[in-house]
Amino acid sequence: MLRGMGMLRLLICCVILIWPVVSRAEAVSLVGDGVFGPARGLITRTAMPAQVAPNGASLFAGNAAGSLFAPFPTALPQGASLGADADVVAHIRAIIGRAESPFAGYDAVQHGAVIRPDKPPTQMTIGEIFAWIAATPGQPHAIGRYQFIPDTLARVVAQTGARHSDRFSPAMQDRLADVLLADAGLPAFMAGQISQQRFMNNLAGIWAGLPTSSGRSKYHGIAGNQATVSLAYFQAEIAKIAPG
């Protein structure tokens, strides 16, 4: 009996010694002070933004059913290669910009947004962009040169490691759009692994202002979407940078 009481006291002492260490342990965050706020644990698949629906009421539309917006596509950290030189990437961005935001460019806000931000998007931080989105439900929120819609913006911000305090500058918008260029298969296209037509259709599956090989937007008629540039123009411009 006395021996059993001694063992019990020893066990209690061990628990008392260990408990402060356990109670102070805290999972580290993979987000830091990003757009999702101060994270208290590791990102899980269920914590990722919802996939983009094609009826997002914007010139930009995602392919919810396909692989372009899988929950964990390959991340593209700052400085990662797209398999193309800077001039090629800039050329493709310009094609998309002409289709999605031909007038306001990096400061474009979807025309259906009744309550617009109180300053140009390029003068806002990413956190301010998300605050505007949260404060104005029930209207379209596509924004910037590449007409990012909220779910897509949240995803590419998380993938690049951009922070809540970062400005939504032209350089930042380009960096975020490059994630989508990787999704569309730009590295594979430049390596000759996919055809020009497939690459173009991939781009058109992301940006509704671009035509598919049918000549029409993949999302034609959905929330007013339509191709805003011709197939002939799109083909001619992509042919300028096609490998070989």
What does this structure look like?
By secondary structure, this protein is an all-alpha fold. It has one domain. The protein has eight helices and no strands. The chain has helices spanning 2-24, 86-100, 126-135, 150-160, 170-183, 186-190, 196-206, 231-239. α4 crosses α5 (170-183). The protein starts with a helix and ends in a 5-residue tail after the last helix. This is Muramidase (Phage lambda lysozyme).
Summarize the structure.
It contains 8 helices and no strands. It is mostly helical and 244 residues long. The protein has one domain.
Which descriptors apply to this entry?
244 residues; mainly alpha; 8 helices; globular; Muramidase (Phage lambda lysozyme); Lysozyme-like_dom_sf
Task: Please tally the helical runs, counting DSSP H or I stretches of 4 or more residues.
Answer: 8
Major sheet size, sense and barrel closure: none
Principal-axis shape: globular
Average pLDDT metric? 77
Q: Beta-sheet strand percentage?
A: under 5%
Would you list the SSEs in sequence order as H and E? Answer: HHHHHHHH
Radius of gyration over all CA atoms, rounded: 23 Å
The helix-and-strand class reads mainly alpha
Residue stretches low in confidence (pLDDT < 50, at least 5 long) are: 11-75
Number of strands: 0
Helix coverage percent: 40-55%
Span from first to last CA?
A: 87 Å
**Domain module tally:** 1
